[in-house]
Amino acid sequence: PWGRIEYYGPDCAMQEEDLLITIIRKWIENGMKEFGCQYAELLDELGYKRQKDGKHSTRNRRTLKEMLMRLGLAAFRCIFSRGKGKTSGLVTHAISFNWDDKEKILKIDVNKWFVGTIGRGVVTGIDLKERKALKGDTAKALHRFLSSHSGSEGHINVFVLAQVIGMNMKQPRRKIRQLLKLAIRELKRIGFLQEKSRIKDDVLHWHLS
User: Fold this and answer.
1) Residues 6+ apart with CB under 8 A from 31
2) Of 24, 5, 12, 17, whose CA–CA distance to 118 is shortest?
3) Are 55 and 7 in contact (CB under 8 A)?
4) What is the rounded distance in angstroms from the CA atom of residue 104 to the CA atom of residue 118?
5) SS3 category, 149
6) Cα separations (Å) of 123 from 54, 62, 72, 164?
7) By C-alpha distance, which of 184, 179, 181 is closest to 209?
8) CA–CA separation, 77 vs 67, rounded Å?
9) Residues 58, 74: Cα–Cα separation, whole Å
10) Which of these, 70, 58, 63, lies nearest to 11 by C-alpha position?
């Protein structure tokens, strides 16, 4: 038996991943049920700064609404083998949301099937405080990848790693090495990786703290 997942929808970046992780965590804390919140609450958790008057800017709110829209439109087609050359498929979305005018609150729900099949690895083992302390997209992606592993150390070819965490494989190899080295430096700075973690002969040898 085999299966594959195909993505359909708008391009999503690391900021959408940050938002998705935050939403899934809040959804789990609410008993895996729809939850309500304010836009300001999500912006605070994502690290957006408030203005001097204590409110979030119109720009921040617009950015969040655009990210929610992209996540809401993101669709995943899961194709499974049924044997003898036959397949079956399922199309699903990660989240759904709406603004409740009566209660003046944003209501968000997460697709349970998505979390169980695809999204489980997005949130498993991730320390949100550590993630928020990271600035680079590559560092966040590497943090997610290493957080999903049960062991405290391991090794992987840097170009295989780059493909797994979604780096641009069209850029020069020296650039990929450079970005990964910067990401490792960031992860050491926040105490996630031990100092002996390094890249040698295009292989990342990692040791979690």
Assistant:
1) none
2) 5
3) no
4) 31
5) coil
6) 30, 25, 18, 16
7) 184
8) 21
9) 24
10) 70
Place of tokens 């991943």: 17
Which residues make Cβ contacts (< 8 Å) with residue 7, sequence separation at least 6? 74, 75, 76, 77
Task: List the chain pLDDT tens, one digit each, 209 residues.
Answer: 445 667 888 888 889 988 998 998 899 899 999 999 999 999 999 989 999 999 999 999 999 999 999 999 988 877 766 666 665 667 788 899 999 998 999 999 999 887 776 655 555 567 777 888 888 989 988 998 888 777 899 999 999 999 988 889 999 999 999 999 999 999 999 999 999 999 999 999 999 99
DSSP 119: I
- Token code pair at residue 9: 């929808």
CA distance 3 to 152: 29
Which residues on adjacent β-strands are paired with residue 36?
A: 107
Place of tokens 């895996």: 32
161 and 139 in contact (C-beta within 8 Å)?
no
Please give the structure tokens belonging to residue 172.
Answer: 């020069």
Q: Which two tokens stand for residue 36?
A: 């309500």
For residue 116, give the H/E element and its range: none
For residues 82 and 93, what is the distance between their CA atoms, to the nearest angstrom?
23
CA dist 134 to 138, 186, 187, Å? 9, 7, 8
Q: What is the DSSP letter of 103?
A: T
